[in-house]
C-alpha cells in the first residue's frame, strides 16, 4: 500500500508542476496611430472602445479620438477633442456620450520654453453625431484623478487628483453639473479606484502624508463617505496605474515595481474585495519587454464583460531608478488584451483536474494489481 501512496505523490507532483499561475498579454496586430500615455479609454458596452487624447513625445499635442473595433481588431481616428488634453479621467452616459474631465495641456511659448496648464473643462463627445463640445467645468483645475460610475444613473464620481487629493466630485451627466460634495478620509496621489456596483468604491494608492513601501486599500461607502481599510499590502505606486472591475475582482495594471517585495513589473494585481487582499499575477508578454528595471504606467484600460477580457492601450515604460527624461522613457503604441479566467474558481480548476487525474491513475493501478493477483 505504501507503494501506491508513493506513486500517487509522484504523479501529483509531476502533474501539478504543469500548472502555470499566469496570464498572457496578447498584442493586437494593430497599433495606436501614435505612441502615447495619459489617454482615456471608454468602452461603449458593445463592440467599440474609444481612446481620447493623450500625450506623445513625438507630437505631444494629441487631441485625436480613436475608435477601436473589437470584432475586427481595427482602429481609426474619428474625431478630435477641443483641446489636446492628457492625464484626464473619463465617463460615459446612458446615451453613449463620452466625457473627459480636466487633465492638462502643454503650451509652447515663443521663446521655446514649455509650460503645462491644468484644466477644469469637461468635454463631451457624441459618437453618433461625431461632435465634441465643452459642457461643464470641474470645481477647480485637476489632473490624474480617477472616475468611477456613480450610485445613480448618469452620474460619476471623480476622485482625488494631483491638485485636490481628497476630493470627491459628483458629475451629473443629465444636468451637466460638477460639484465637490465631500472629502476622502485620506489624501491620495498616485492612485486609482474601482466601483463594485453595490455602493462601495475601492481606492488603491499612495497616502499623501505617509511615505511607505505599502498601503492599505480603502473601502469607501459612497453614501456615507466613510472608509474601512484592509491590511497594508498594496505596493507604493511610482506612476499612475489603470484599474478595471470584472464583477468579482479588481485588476490594477502598471504603476508599481517593488521587486524585493514580490511586486515585479511584469505582473498585474488582482484584488479581492471580500478579503481586501491582493494577489500578484505574472503576465507573459507584459509591456515591460521582460526588463525588470522598467515599470509600466500611465496606460488606459477597459474591461469587456462579454469576452471576460481586459484591453490595454498605450502607456510608457520608465526606469525604476526614477529617471523621468525622454532618454530613459519609452512611449508605447501597443494595444494588448488579457483573457481572464472564466469563473472565479478557474484558477483552481487545473489543480483540481490534476488531482482527479492522479486519483484516477492510482485507482487504475490498484485495480490492475488486484486483477493480476486474482
Automatic annotation (TrEMBL):
Keywords: Membrane, Signal, Transmembrane, Transmembrane helix. Residues 1-21 form the signal peptide. The chain crosses the membrane at residues 347-366. It comes from Folsomia candida. This is Kelch domain-containing protein 10.
